[in-house]
Amino acid sequence: MLSANPVLRTTKPMTTATEKKPAIFTRTPNLREENTLALRKQLHEYFVTTFDRYESLFEVLTCDQAYYEKPISLRHPLIFYYGHTATFFVNKLLLARMIVERINPRFESMFAVGVDEMSWDDLNDAHYQWPTPAEVKAYRDQVRFLVINLIQTAPLQLPVDWYNPWWAIIMGIEHERIHLETSSVLIRQHKLEYVKTHPQWIPCQETGKAPVNRLIQVPAGEVVLGKDKSNAYYGWDNEYGVHRADVKEFQASQFLVSNQEFLDFVLAGGYESPQYWEPEGQGWLNFTQAKSPTFWVKKNSGWYLRLMTEEVPMPWDWPVEVNYHEAKAFCNWKKNITGLAVRLPTEDEWYRLYDEATVAPITAEKAKANIQLDYFASSCPVNRFAQGDFYDLVGNVWQWTETPIYPFEGFDVHTIYDDFTTPTFDERHNLIKGGSWISCGNETLRDARYAFRRHFFQHAGFRYVISEDVKPVPSSHYENDKLLSEYAEFHYGDEYFGVANFSQSLANLAIQWVGDAAHKKALDLGCASGRATFELAKHFDFVTGIDFSARFVGQGVLLARGETLRYTLADEGELVQYKSRNLNDLGLSETKDKVDFFQGDACNLKSQFTGYDFILAANLIDRLYSPAKFLSGIHERLVVGGLLMLTSPYTWLVDHTPREDWIGGFKKDGESFTSFDGLLALLSPHFELVQQPIEVPFVIRETRRKFQHSLSEVTLWKRLK
Amino acid sequence: MLSANPVLRTTKPMTTATEKKPAIFTRTPNLREENTLALRKQLHEYFVTTFDRYESLFEVLTCDQAYYEKPISLRHPLIFYYGHTATFFVNKLLLARMIVERINPRFESMFAVGVDEMSWDDLNDAHYQWPTPAEVKAYRDQVRFLVINLIQTAPLQLPVDWYNPWWAIIMGIEHERIHLETSSVLIRQHKLEYVKTHPQWIPCQETGKAPVNRLIQVPAGEVVLGKDKSNAYYGWDNEYGVHRADVKEFQASQFLVSNQEFLDFVLAGGYESPQYWEPEGQGWLNFTQAKSPTFWVKKNSGWYLRLMTEEVPMPWDWPVEVNYHEAKAFCNWKKNITGLAVRLPTEDEWYRLYDEATVAPITAEKAKANIQLDYFASSCPVNRFAQGDFYDLVGNVWQWTETPIYPFEGFDVHTIYDDFTTPTFDERHNLIKGGSWISCGNETLRDARYAFRRHFFQHAGFRYVISEDVKPVPSSHYENDKLLSEYAEFHYGDEYFGVANFSQSLANLAIQWVGDAAHKKALDLGCASGRATFELAKHFDFVTGIDFSARFVGQGVLLARGETLRYTLADEGELVQYKSRNLNDLGLSETKDKVDFFQGDACNLKSQFTGYDFILAANLIDRLYSPAKFLSGIHERLVVGGLLMLTSPYTWLVDHTPREDWIGGFKKDGESFTSFDGLLALLSPHFELVQQPIEVPFVIRETRRKFQHSLSEVTLWKRLK
Question: Which of A5, A30, B263, B520 would you label with B662, given CA atoms 20 to 30 Å apart?
Fold first, then answer.
């Protein structure tokens, strides 16, 4: 391990951003390079060009004040972003244990956390005593030396993959490439007086009459998304795993929507017509009072377009840049005037277009797309780069989709960056695809998946499609209610202290005890998250799971749909880990058509639930408001000769069961009267005990180091009459 | 196992109470009789004579109304006691699994629970639809058959001891003998019209001038109380175990205080002089407005004494019958007028008298004392039965002592009667010794120990002693605060799930890590119940335990005094088990002079606590209001080179530690910052980490079937500067 502090060996003369001007900006490296020296050289080049290019971006600023004044109120000033990408390296290298000390704790605290674009209350400038740009540059130089030194001298075990500490280095570079783009957007939103033209950031000069858009038929086909951890290129967590989908035939616009095409919507009063806007979009429109796209500038002399460092007369044939709400309102308007099912493409449809047009991956050659800074520091005409029958499937500007970002099957967070994607699994962040003129590195790969809040601005526009078919995306919700998460883990998660899965143990006992007896219908009463319901369905023809809590039942329903149950588990304080399970993982996928789940009250069960050969009531009776009512009526739900399996730790609590309704666990007529005594008393009119009580342990994880470890008394009863 | 129901074989003709009149009432049997037939015969005789004699007591009642009207407001009417002793057999035989069914569930519910003499609010006659005496007699006959049948036919494994199911039979008989006495007291408190004389219940006719009491010197000596479970005679739980005491020289009155002697106190205005009464006695006096002993009746013709079935002119030479408060007030008055240290004897002093006078045990011969109904159905003159130099050390009336009942070392509850004594371990129940004219069976043994609320009436009086020496009795308190009990068990109790005692494991690790280094002074900070303090004292010369909670510290203090820590442990609902531990049990008695305990605040420790070679802070930091304050100052308490051992599951809770004071377990500057990171940051100015973190498990029992099972991260730090 290297120390980040105090003195770094200078391994080569410092480069500064202006000295270099690569003809082609470096591509994200193939990490399967087997020559370690070649790999070190490649990473060194990739790091330096990225670090340089990022610094060159800030050279367009005209004065120190440009660093301190916020371009938009909801994000930090640019000085933060200038330091942030350097601090990110230090933080991730520390977590990966490639270094053991900080370079500048004060800076690294200040430059650590960006501001989410929607946190109105979060930002308080009083907290920040920003350093000067020169101080930040000096700090960046320290980080530059550190990273170069590591790349040249740190022990390197191949492969450099997800599990390798060197992943932190690539992560830092790719992270800086993302900020290259997002900082360019902030600069584009800055006052004109704070920016100046720069030889490395020359916008496109080409413009002409916008082409008339037309719809192209796209045949149905399957798309396969996702990649595995053996992939040769760096990826963010959300790219891994697998997703397959059959996409129905649809039509898509040949070009991205141009400024010209969007003008019709503006002139038609689109910004004054709430009916075209989705409810969330109406809220945004109401808040901002927008009248036209954000980078459009209306002057007496006509419309202009704000680019990164200048305003130019409106290039009508360039793609319009809007947020999701504006794009969606345009589609709704167009749907209204054409009668066609106009909407944005889904992520799957974008891949269908990509595959159908056989878009070529970006190589070391100049791209056949306005991407990677290979051509311009701006958009260009929508009819400049053809890809198959279409234009701009990749490059020029990002393209909004209808699809909120969601995790693929097999999604996993990376330990040193567990909040890259998970906070966006909230169905409020939509995917953008294809990349823009400044997208580079990982952003240019087919696998790349980025998502932003729907009201956010990037260099992003859209193309539209005609199709009625919009599939709901798989649930991306991570359950973080403490109790629901604990039960998800209790039912479907890992085992602790060597204690076997409780639901599975009970189901196995049940199946053993039922033996060759009738096993058509079973009922899992108080099924909670439903694991025993699935386990019983291995033996029974059909199993019904019922729980009082619709939220618990929801976990079973979700799994029975074939989806993945996702939850966060408390580790320590506020720190969590992310977990997911589905029936496949548990060898239970065959059972999903043999189960059904309902919300219901065990003390007041609907009449339809009857005629069962077997009923399981696991850890239920001490959570009922009237266990006696349940016990004295449960025989009606079983066939004569049917079996009732009860399990309970008899943890009576007045919060669940009024004291007078406990069935045992007190002195009765002066003598100890146990819950088992209570069961005998209440069940004897219709049941005989057919197994002596046994205890089955279970463990519920509360935190990484704290567990409930209990014993549930299991009894088996046969209905006699 | 026999079924108590439905039909019982009639094994011999029924006896009724009036047919038999044994010259000598049967003695409690020697249970080491090795001939089982002889033993069955003996138990049969003991049962039948007891059952008969008890029934004959109710023959003094004049009418059914006498069964239903309560003699005193705070206890059930006599019909209850008529049924109760029979039901007791059924209940205990069920618990001992000698029978499996009830005889009469309704009766057995009604007759199960007596009423404690102090529960003012507990009794509601509306609940009771008492049966007729004839119905109860029929029920008693069923129970009689049941028990006789068992005694004659149930399998009998010798020895009949504490662990034998037959113990329930003797328990039932001895229980009935107790009620023979307590019911006789209730009858004595009944209206005269409800009672009549009876040939089996003839009081003493002898009376004369009361002797003048005098003090006799008793030399110092040791007494040994308690017995072990191999003892040949039935005993109640409180008699087992061992207690040894050195009793200083004292003087004792030759006679019990007679009515005559007590009259002086009455005439001196004792009942109108609160200054002679203890505070609790003043409360009783105030409530009852008593002016003389409860069985004294003042008529125009002078004082009379109420006996069980009649009133007689005051026999001035009989012992006065009073409660503790009256006896104590008499002593205080006498102390005041004599200047002598007059008080009641302690239990130890009563044994000293018993041993010194070489009182003979009761045998099959007529007793040399007014006891066992061998002579009278009442008291007799205080100078009738000499025992050594004294009179009435046993027999005539019970004698109040200064000693609240407490458990001997080795005390254990009996599983089928866990609330015989434990509810009286409250320092509000004082021991009475010696027995009365109606005391029989176990009550007549030297080992017998009965205690009643101090305001309660029995056939009880007192003798007084002169001595300044009153030793405090050992704590008899059973901790039943949930948290304190759980910690008592956590520190000193059993192991669960095979997880070794946590405090011991930590101390062993500490001793191993300290090795040959200095080990003079150690500090156990957050010592809770103190187990690790004792464990560390195996190696360190002196160990100080400090906890924020004085109640926790109290457990360590009590153990260090050589006393026994007693606590109830929740089993299920309200059911508990009784546990006790002392340092002997744990092999720690050698350490008790090497420890000291203090209440203190780890975040604000007094300056005296410094200069330690070793500090343990086990499961402390996540319970502090300011862990940072603690961690940044703790080096001042250690010598340079000293070791600090921290353990924690890092269960941060805002209830203990405000969120802003957590030292880790959150995202800091965007990255996961664990509690261990926080320790490193806060301790590094003065410490180096000398052991990598390890996890040590611990288990806290909440109920019989519910446990907290946690992992504590253990780190070791050396003070460098």
Answer: A5
How high is the mean pLDDT of chain A? 92
CB contact under 8 A, A108 and B669: yes
Looking at residue B127, its pLDDT comes to 52
Chain A: give the shortest CA distance to residue B353, in Å. Answer: 37
Residue A15 has pLDDT above 60, yes or no: no
CB contact under 8 A, B703 and A91: no
Q: What angle do CA A517, A522, A527 make, to 5 degrees?
A: 140
- From the list B539, B552, B696, B518, the residue with the least C-alpha distance to B623 is B552
Q: Do B712 and A706 touch (CB under 8 A)?
A: no
Beta-carbon contacts of B694 under 8 Å, excluding residues fewer than 6 positions away, are: B713, B714
**CA quadruple B419, B422, B427, B432: dihedral sign:** positive
Lowest mean pLDDT of A38-52, A124-138, A213-227, A364-378, name the range. A124-138
User: CA–CA separation, B460 vs B446, rounded Å?
Assistant: 17
Closest by CA to B102, choosing from B135, B55, B130, B139, is: B139
* Interface probe with A: pick from B672, B688, B703, B708, most Cβ of A within 10 Å: B672
Tokens 């025992």, located at residue: B387
Helices assigned H by DSSP within B22-100: 36-58, 65-68, 78-95
For range A394-415, the mean pLDDT:
93
Least confident of A1-10, A327-336, A402-411, B378-387: A1-10
Q: Which residues pair with B598 in a beta bridge?
A: B546
pLDDT of residue A128: 66
Which one-letter amino acid corresponds to residue A179?
Answer: H
- Tokens 């023979």, located at residue: B180
Residues with Cβ within 8 Å of A489's Cβ and at least 6 positions away in sequence, in order, are A567, A569, A579, A700, A701
b/e sequence A668-701, b meaning 16+ C-beta within 10 Å:
bebbbbbbbebbbbbbeebbeeeeeeeebbbbbb
- Which pLDDT does position A121 carry in this prediction? 39
Q: How confident is the model at residue B425 (pLDDT cuts 50, 70, 90)?
A: confident
Q: Residues B360-388: pLDDT tens digits?
A: 888 889 999 999 999 999 999 999 999 99
Among B571, B704, B709, beta carbon nearest to A497: B709
Of B348, B497, B545, give the one whose Cα is nearest residue B433.
B348
Residue B341 has which token pair?
């240290």
Asked whether B212 and B256 are in contact (CB, 8 A), the reply is no
Side chain identity at residue B20, one-letter code: K
| pTM, two decimal places | 0.76
**DSSP secondary structure string for all residues of B596-623:** EEEE--TTS--TTS--EEEEEEET-GGG
The answer to whether residues A43 and A170 touch, using CB atoms and an 8 Å cutoff, is: yes
CA distances from residue A472 to A192, A346, A454, A688 in whole angstroms, order as listed: 43, 10, 17, 50
**Four-point Cα dihedral A267, A269, A272, A273, nearest 10:** -140
The alpha-carbon gap from B658 to the nearest alpha carbon of chain A, in Å, equals: 12
CA distance A105 to chain B (A): 10
Q: What is the phi/psi pair of residue A575, to 5°?
A: -75, 140
CA distance A496 to A709: 9
Say if residue A13's pLDDT is above 50.
Answer: no
Instruction: Write the ipTM.
Output: 0.75
- Phi, psi at B661, each rounded to 5°: -105, 0
Instruction: Look at residue A14 and tell me whether its pLDDT is greater than 50.
Output: no
| Coil vs helix vs strand at A110 | helix
B163 burial via Cβ count (<10 Å: 0-12, 13-18, 19+):
exposed
Residue A427's pLDDT band, with cuts at 50, 70 and 90, is: confident
